[in-house]
Amino acid sequence: MDKSILLRNNVNVKGKGTTSLIFAPGLGCDQNVWNAVAKTFEEDFKVVLFDYVGSGNSNISAYDEERYSSLKGYSQDVLDICASLNIRDAIFVGHSVGSTIGMLASMEHPEYFSNLIMVGPSPCYMNVPPNYFGGFEREEILGLIDLMEKNYIGWANVFASTAMGNEERPELSKELEDRFCSTDPIIALQFAKATFFADTRGDLHKVTVPSLILQCAEDIIAPSAVGEYLHQHLPSSTYKQMKATGHCPHMSYPNETAQLIREYLNESIEDTVQIGDLR
């Protein structure tokens, strides 16, 4: 066990099970966004939570601009965590860009993962005419990046509201905004560039690990067309349309999120792994 890796990414391991369930947050968030979902699996799994370098209680001194200039740097962190904990055949649950990070990690070391669960995933956030609709025009992404550079707090407020949706529950947007504001702004900016300018569509056919795509309704960040595209191009994928709206169902609809994950695992994992009913 490499304690420096566990400290770098503030890795926390909970639960009574033997099969590892790794939860990866999305852009600008720390592991706490998964609390409501993750705790429902602690009776049956070894739950692994972590922070990206620059967020939460990670070791910010470990940040390397070159390493984290692309999503591969973040996926290498996931592989480092798996190696340090001697993990094999883990279930990786990623939100948004966290899904892509897990997918890239699985391509490098598929033996570390038995399943990928993608919540609101996107292989490319930018529209690429004429055949791909990612949700954003290039000018819109450049505008978001510019706002982050000039007024990070303002960006956090706007993007949290956009991503969360659920206008009738403003406390959820405030919680997400607080997560953004607890992340180092310079690192968050670099992470955003790595996220929004990434295009992993050409890698989808290389993925060998079975996956579940959880697609939210009324998701501005990752529209339904994106989830459907992933399902069409990702081998061994299962597609589930959620009742949850917005881009962060693990925060806004944790019960539905946990239930759909558990239903998928009940169908996918070998009979030797016992999974209890949703608690």
From TrEMBL:
Alphabetical list of InterPro entries matching this protein: AB_hydrolase_1 (IPR000073), AB_hydrolase_fold (IPR029058)
Positions of the AB hydrolase-1 domain: 21-259
Family: Belongs to the AB hydrolase superfamily.
Identification of the protein by name: Sigma factor SigB regulation protein RsbQ
Biological source species: Guptibacillus hwajinpoensis
